[in-house]
Amino acid sequence: MDAEITLRVDGAARRLTLDTRTTLLDALRERLGVTSPKKGCDHGQCGACTVLIGGRRVLSCLSLAIAQDGAEVTTAEGLADDGELHPVQRAFLEHDGFQCGYCTPGQICSAVGMLDEAGQGWPSHVTPDMSTRPALTRAEIAERMSGNLCRCAAYDGIVGAIEEAAR
């Protein structure tokens, strides 16, 4: 069965008709040509497909597109502002937070969402004091980013980039 939906992707309203079983990832990549979210595992285990919906991290391979009708979807492509890289994007470049680059868009979207979560005071599993805003130590960043895997093991650069962006 097909349905017509509207997604606001990286600031532009996009209307499309698709099978109700279509994932958000497939709608973005195959129907709208937005290729920064990657299909890594297609099971929600690697984070390569991470996008932001309303500023929150979402694994787009696990979300049905129809469930996001009307949503504001931001991909790594949409983080730049008028040609100016987002601070997390700049930090990834400066800290070599990538090697092959396949996971990088998902890592960047996840980092942006994670920094917002931490800024709002959300604790993680390793947050020592739940009553105060968590300090973004390397352990805290690693825990919060643990859903995003990098096959090249560029984690040192990724964590360093996020530390810089947090400052």
Automatic annotation (TrEMBL):
Tree of life domain: Bacteria
Gene3D superfamilies on file: 3.10.20.30, [2Fe-2S]-binding domain
Keyword Metal-binding on entry: yes
Pathway named in the protein's UniProt entry: Alkaloid degradation; nicotine degradation
GO molecular function, one term: 2 iron, 2 sulfur cluster binding
Keywords attached to this entry: 2Fe-2S, Iron, Iron-sulfur, Metal-binding, Oxidoreductase
Residues in 2Fe-2S ferredoxin-type domain copies: 3-79
Coiled coil start-end: none
Keyword Repeat tagged: no
PANTHER family in alphabetical order: OXIDOREDUCTASE WITH IRON-SULFUR SUBUNIT, OXIDOREDUCTASE, IRON-SULPHUR BINDING SUBUNIT-RELATED-RELATED
This protein's name: Xanthine dehydrogenase YagT iron-sulfur-binding subunit
Organism expressing this protein natively: Amycolatopsis endophytica
